[in-house]
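Hi R.,

As promised on Friday, here is the backbone we talked about, encoded as structure tokens. Could you run it through your design pipeline when you get a chance and send me back a sequence?
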């Protein structure tokens, strides 16, 4: 049999034996091609000028992902070399040269990588269509399926794959060429050495690592670049210290509690677990570190998605909004320009008044973690203007009874203001609380919005003699204000400011629904896509390595359970013992990331301005969804590995 035929036979066998690895490499190629497709898609690029930045971010994320997948391929290749070292040694024993065996191993792995790359391109084209549909939906465009194949995206993906595989195979080839027959035959028996000696020292390291993990997490939550770097270093030290010392921590625990040692399957389960950790502590620590990065990356993606949607929802209430603190409000010249260039169906110019006191504002400031107000007093609006604004925004009509006032506020302030409900004085009238409404109403603007967080609605006659704080103009347009028209509005406003010798534009605002939604879609694409891309790559890589390690022990586990059956253990107990071993093996590297990632994500999501992250985007929801998504994908790998191991290990 020729070497080429042996290589092809081994490649087929390798694909079957390590199917989970082969599928993961296919997914890696598919993900890289799909995101590269976004970079080279002219259609996607035309949606927003920000997509030049998206291309850069995806390239940067791809570099990180290539390094992650490179570690996977390098680890798996070295693992396969270890498992097949006896076979390769026998090839040399029967007369082949080391160079020939190295070439044999190189070719068969190159065949596996090439096949995975080919299948990955096919799947990647489908994933690209999904990403394309998501991007089109973000920008409110209609998606039409069009088969396309990007040669540039495929070429870039091939470059990535070449770097990954050639680097990993070059290391393996060099190792085979320099190893002796004896070293190859017994290479499989080599385990990871104990970095920390057994006994008191390892127990001290275990305790110290826990302290480092707590301090590191607190520093990461504190924020700031210096605290972040120090916190990340302490967390890394915690993970490696924890896993390298854990193997001695469990025996020490059971030595002091002998009654628990022999209860049920404890002795079998924890003996197997500590033996496993004792030989792959560094790998487990690295996997746990990548899990932590994955969970935080996923949480940040959910956070930014909720943040951008929440802000856009408040800022894009009206098709067109213009606020002005200038004397006389929005200039007539500017309004004439709008009338000539923007097709308007309905519009309103209205004043926002200063109240006679700041009682509600002071009450709110004392009870919520709120922005500093840049208003001196509570802001008010006449009922007639308020009703018209609601109509333009598409909200249902509300009624204001004589002698009453209404409050329109952000949703998170509703209960606070409702419980307060003070008497309000306006224009010599004392008004009672009449109701509260919380629809989005452009109440985030610092200078010229519809109040900062809340707005008091009073009868029109109560505002006679009150001071106008600023003016607003809203319009319902026949068609969305296109980006070009919006940019022209901004430029025209600046020119008018210069003509009026006004250089301070801080208290003037121009907003359009179409622009806010486009900005929101661009920011989501630039931040959320790369973060999810990175998170998925991290999870796939780490879960694959764990699964390869577990499935490779099938022969050992089978011998173990055959012996246990001879000693009298029934099938139900063996299934229970296997399940416990399996669950602990997969949970061990996942628990520290949960303990570290959850408080960091919660702290990140709680640090934004109030009222933006609500509902499915609330801090608690972001944490919950991050953990659930993590375990959903992780569970797929766990289920595949457990069913395969159960079938191969437990005696009939």
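Update: got your reply. Pasting your designed sequence below so it's all in one thread:
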């Amino acid at each position: 049999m020729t070497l080429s035929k042996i290589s092809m036979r081994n490649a087929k066998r390798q694909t079957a034996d390590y199917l989970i690895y082969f599928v993961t490499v296919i997914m890696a190629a598919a993900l890289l091609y799909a995101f590269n497709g976004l970079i080279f898609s002219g259609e996607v690029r035309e949606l927003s000028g920000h997509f030049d930045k998206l291309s850069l971010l995806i390239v940067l994320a791809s570099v990180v992902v290539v390094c992650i997948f490179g570690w996977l391929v390098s680890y798996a290749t070295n693992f396969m070399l270890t498992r097949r070292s006896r076979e390769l040694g026998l090839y040399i024993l029967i007369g082949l040269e080391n160079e020939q065996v190295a070439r044999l191993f190189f070719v068969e792995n190159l065949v596996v990588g090439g096949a995975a790359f080919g299948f990955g391109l096919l799947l990647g084209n489908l994933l690209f269509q999904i990403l394309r549909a998501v991007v089109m939906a973000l920008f409110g465009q209609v998606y039409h399926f069009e088969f396309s194949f990007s040669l540039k995206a495929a070429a870039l993906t091939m470059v990535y794959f070449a770097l990954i595989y050639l680097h990993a195979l070059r290391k393996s080839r060099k190792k085979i060429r320099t190893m002796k027959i004896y070293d190859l035959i017994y290479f499989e028996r080599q385990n990871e050495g104990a970095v920390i000696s057994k006994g008191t020292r390892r127990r001290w390291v275990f305790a110290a690592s826990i302290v480092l993990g707590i301090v590191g997490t607190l520093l990461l939550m504190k924020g700031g670049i210096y605290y972040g770097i120090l916190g990340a270093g302490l967390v890394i030290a915690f993970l490696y210290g924890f896993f390298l010392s854990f193997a001695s921590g469990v025996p020490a625990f059971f030595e002091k509690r002998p009654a628990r040692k022999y209860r049920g399957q404890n002795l079998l389960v924890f003996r197997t677990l500590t033996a496993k950790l004792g030989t792959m502590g560094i790998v487990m620590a690295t996997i746990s570190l990548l899990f932590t990065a994955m969970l935080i990356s996923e949480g940040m993606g959910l956070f930014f998605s909720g943040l951008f949607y929440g802000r856009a929802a408040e800022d894009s209430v009206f098709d067109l909004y213009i606020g002005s603190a200038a004397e006389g409000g929005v200039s007539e010249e500017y309004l004439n320009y709008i009338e000539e260039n923007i097709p308007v169906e309905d519009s309103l110019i209205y004043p926002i008044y200063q109240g006679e006191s700041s009682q509600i504002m002071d009450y709110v400031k004392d009870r919520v973690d709120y922005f500093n107000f840049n208003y001196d007093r509570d802001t008010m609006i006449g009922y007639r203007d308020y009703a018209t604004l609601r109509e333009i925004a598409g909200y249902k009509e509300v009624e204001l009874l004589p002698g009453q006032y209404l409050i329109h506020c952000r949703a998170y302030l509703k209960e606070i203001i409702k419980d307060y409900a003070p008497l309000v004085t306006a224009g010599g009238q004392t008004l009672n609380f009449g109701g509260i409404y919380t629809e989005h109403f452009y109440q985030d603007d610092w200078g010229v919005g519809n109040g900062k967080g809340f707005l008091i609605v009073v009868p029109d006659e109560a505002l006679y003699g009150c001071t106008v704080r600023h003016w607003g103009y809203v319009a319902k347009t026949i068609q969305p204000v296109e980006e070009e028209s919006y940019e022209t509005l901004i430029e025209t406003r600046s020119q008018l400011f210069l003509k009026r010798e006004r250089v301070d534009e801080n208290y003037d605002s121009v907003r359009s629904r179409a622009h806010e939604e486009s900005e929101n879609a661009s920011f989501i694409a630039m931040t959320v896509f790369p973060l999810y891309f990175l998170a998925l790559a991290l999870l796939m890589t780490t879960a694959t390595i764990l699964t390869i390690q577990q499935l490779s022990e099938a022969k050992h586990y089978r011998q173990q359970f055959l012996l246990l059956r001879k000693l009298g253990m029934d099938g139900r107990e063996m299934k229970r013992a296997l399940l416990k071993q399996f669950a602990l093996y997969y949970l061990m590297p996942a628990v520290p990331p949960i303990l570290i990632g959850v408080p960091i994500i919660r702290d990140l999501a709680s640090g934004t301005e109030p009222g933006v992250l609500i509902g499915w985007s609330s801090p608690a929801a972001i944490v919950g969804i991050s953990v659930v998504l993590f375990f959903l994908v992780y569970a797929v790998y766990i289920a595949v590995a457990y069913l395969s191991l159960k079938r191969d290990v437990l005696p009939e």
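One thing I noticed while checking it: The longest strand covers residues 344-354.

Thanks again,
M.
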